[in-house]
Design goal:
It is a single chain. By secondary structure, this protein is of the alpha+beta class. The protein contains 4 helices and 7 strands. The protein has a single domain, classed as Orthogonal Bundle (Arc Repressor Mutant, subunit A), CATH 1.10.10. A 3-stranded antiparallel sheet has the order 3-5-4. The protein has a two-stranded antiparallel sheet with strand order 1-2. Strands 6-7 form a two-stranded antiparallel ribbon. A hairpin with a 4-residue loop joins strand 4 and strand 5. Helix 1 packs across helix 2. The longest helix has 13 residues.
Length: 106
């Protein structure tokens, strides 16, 4: 992201806030979070690991093809207290069919 002609690098705090806000829309894959937040998928992956360690997000599906995350109750409280109490947090769930050879996210 650039601000004027000066390159701007987001802080860890800003990146993690962006990821939490993305997950306030409901369950999402790493790729969906990356696309909506304009953050590289590997950066998203690393920060989700950190946020999971803090108990703010949890992995609800892990396969060799896709990983799906959602906010925990602590994560929802964190957003309401530290980001904005006006944010509407949705509990949209992903529907996934797991087969032995692949996973289809609906």
């Amino acid at each position: 992201m650039a601000t004027g002609s000066v390159n701007y690098k987001r802080t860890f705090k800003e990146i993690r806030k962006t990821l939490l806000l993305s997950l306030s829309e409901g369950q999402r894959t790493i790729n969906e979070i990356s696309t909506s937040s304009h953050i590289n998928w590997k950066t998203v992956d690393n920060h989700l690991i950190h946020l999971a360690g803090r108990g703010l997000v949890k992995e609800v599906l892990n396969s060799s093809y896709v990983r799906i995350y959602e906010l925990t109750p602590e994560g929802k409280d964190f957003i309401m207290c530290n980001v904005s109490n006006k944010i509407k947090i949705k509990d949209n769930k992903k529907n996934a069919i797991i087969k032995t050879t692949n996973i289809i996210v609906l």
